[in-house]
């Protein structure tokens, strides 16, 4: 599996870098995970957006869905014979309904009680703790696994869900000194999660615009122990 980070900021894009979006490629299958602000533009540097085979959305906050509408226009203009499948949860019917657009895309529901096969990948979902319903994803192909926490506060269930993953992608929106009640993880929680889950590699993402990325990386590494931590600002393409 080849993972390409298309945007790694939380909340809003900044200086040419978008919010959450990850292109996952394998067996000629092109899958987009989250479709934040600036993601469609970046995606076109790697593949034609109309060569996507599917999109999976973790939740319906704008920093994960801002470019869905323009992606639908892109598909509409291309007059593709089949609509683009966009997978989303149905805990919010208004937003789920937007995933279907005549001549462009079709919304498909996922849930957290059975795996969903999408192309060559098996997806398992787990509800996270966030102000709106959001789902972490465990993606398996053969003996390789990628886990994406999506947006979430830290909770113990993440450790089991991420167990032994080859790559863990975490919502690391805060430095270590931001503690208390919050809807994202800080560097300490991301690093500790990676260590406790025994993952092979940690990718910190959903980063803040106001803290130097190198600082975020060094803090996460301190808590992850000997597990290598990478950040999308340095490493955009990761082979899993
Ligand atoms: Zn977010
Ligand atoms: Zn969110």
UniProtKB/TrEMBL annotation:
Pfam families: Lactamase_B_2 (PF12706). GO terms for molecular function: 3'-tRNA processing endoribonuclease activity. The keyword Cell membrane does not apply. Residues 18-206 form the Metallo-beta-lactamase domain. Gene3D superfamilies: Ribonuclease Z/Hydroxyacylglutathione hydrolase-like. Signal peptide: none annotated. InterPro entries: Metallo-B-lactamas (IPR001279), RibonucZ/Hydroxyglut_hydro (IPR036866). Keywords: Hydrolase, Zinc. Transmembrane segments: none annotated. PANTHER family: METALLO-HYDROLASE YHFI-RELATED (PTHR46018:SF4), ZINC PHOSPHODIESTERASE ELAC PROTEIN 1 (PTHR46018). This is Beta-lactamase superfamily hydrolase. It comes from Companilactobacillus nodensis DSM 19682 = JCM 14932 = NBRC 107160.
């Amino acid at each position: 599996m080849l993972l390409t980070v298309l945007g790694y900021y939380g909340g809003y894009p900044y200086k040419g870098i978008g919010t959450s979006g990850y292109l996952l490629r394998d067996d000629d299958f092109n899958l987009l995970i989250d479709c934040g602000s600036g993601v469609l533009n970046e995606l076109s540097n790697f593949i034609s957006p109309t060569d996507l085979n599917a999109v999976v959305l973790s939740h319906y906050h704008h920093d994960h869905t801002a470019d869905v509408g323009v992606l639908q226009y892109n598909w509409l203009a291309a007059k593709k014979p089949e609509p683009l499948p966009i997978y989303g949860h149905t805990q919010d019917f208004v937003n789920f309904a937007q995933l279907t657009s005549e001549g462009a895309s079709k919304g498909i529901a996922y849930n957290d009680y059975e795996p969903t096969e999408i192309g060559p990948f098996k997806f398992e979902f787990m509800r996270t703790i966030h102000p709106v319903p959001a789902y972490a994803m465990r993606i398996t192909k053969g003996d390789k696994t990628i886990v994406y926490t999506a947006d979430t506060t830290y909770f113990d269930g993440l450790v089991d869900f991420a167990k032994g993953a080859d790559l863990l992608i975490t919502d690391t929106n805060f430095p270590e000194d931001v503690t208390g009640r919050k809807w994202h993880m800080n560097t300490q929680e991301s690093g500790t999660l990676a260590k406790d889950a025994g993952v092979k590699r940690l990718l910190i993402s959903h980063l803040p615009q106001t803290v130097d990325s190198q600082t975020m990386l060094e803090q996460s590494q301190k808590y992850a122990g000997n597990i290598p931590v990478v950040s999308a600002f340095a490493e955009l393409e990761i082979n899993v």
